[in-house]
Amino acid sequence: MILAVEEVISIARRDRRFNLFEREAGRFADGAIVPVMLAASNESTGGESRYASAPDAFLVWGHHVLSGAADGDGDRHRNVPVVIVDATSSPLELLRLALATENRAGRYRWSELDRILALFESLCDPGFRDNAGILPLLEPDRDVTPQVRKYRTLSPVLRTALDAGALDVRTAERIATIDPAVIEPLVESARDLTFSRRRQYLLACRDLLDRGDPPEELLTALNSAPPVQRFDLVMKRRKPRRERMDAVVDRVRHEVLRGTGVTLQPPANYEGERYRITFEAGSPGELRRRLNAAAKLENYLDELLGILFQDPLDDTLE
User: Fold this and answer.
1) What is the pLDDT of residues 272-292, one digit of tens each?
2) 3 state SS of 170
């Protein structure tokens, strides 16, 4: 069925329960024919235009498609293909249809998941079971409900960072104790870091503030430093974890390699999966001694690898 965009927009404004998704608005404006999904009663009569005036009609899916059609060139009279579903279907079934049409399981933003689950929860009785199969359409391999509930407790700044993919929920929870007025500039100062380094950096900033460093002093130091130096600056001010990692490597060097001519080098900033073991030899006897010394590292390798593969959020080396 084909309807004018203006008609469908007027329907969409009546009931915005299913306006859940945040997709690029250009899917229609770029010329792709993407049908929107309209719910209306089977009892409506009067030709195709009857749906625009049917009091029970509402848009189930396609709000972002309409946005692209309306904003792309301003022509609200352009026609859009429409799929009609029965408005008397259960709201849970309509939600399932909307999610199946969107087809982005595992790729939703946190703000989208929040809205989808809010609608889902409003349609279910306490102690519900997901008989409609909604949750797998959000994330195929896990129930995201506990994570979304944590998301809802966070400040707007942290929720924005999660939506942008700049943080994970666990890190956001751990830095949520920082004054909201301080979190925003800290998150901004970490913008150019890799995801892994951003987590370490923000957790280190939290530790500095928890131990009593004045936030104004920390922010001044960070803003005065070039972006490429901020990570090292924070880590040097924090020190305990890095010092303990260095202590493990230094102890092994002292106990096993001192005086052998064999060197042990961890990956830069302990971000990697392998150590470099190097030596030089000028004779068969010297080569044999070097190899024997290097072989003794086998008994220490589990401990050395343990500090590389330790969860970055675990600040102990016990």
Assistant:
1) 889 999 999 999 999 999 999
2) helix
Predicted confidence at residue 236, as pLDDT, reads 82
Longest dimension (CA), the chain: 99
Mean pLDDT of the chain: 84
CB 132 within 8 A of CB 96: yes
Burial 154-184, CB ≥16 within 10 A → b, else e:
bbebbbbbbbeebbebebbbbbbebeeebbb
Q: Which two tokens stand for residue 249?
A: 């490597």
Note whether 110 and 162 are within 8 A (CB): yes
Long-range contacts of 180-183 (CB under 8 A, 24+ apart): 180/155, 182/209, 182/215, 182/219, 183/155, 183/157, 183/158
Distance, CA of 156 to CA of 287 (rounded, Å): 61
Contacts of 25 (CB under 8 A, 6+ apart): 64, 65, 67, 68, 71, 72
Element (DSSP H or E) covering residue 309: helix 301-309
Q: 207-237 burial by CB neighbour count: b if 16+ within 10 A, else e?
A: bbbeeeeebeebeeebeeeeeeebbebbbee
Amino acid at 202: L
pTM of the predicted model, to two decimals?
A: 0.67
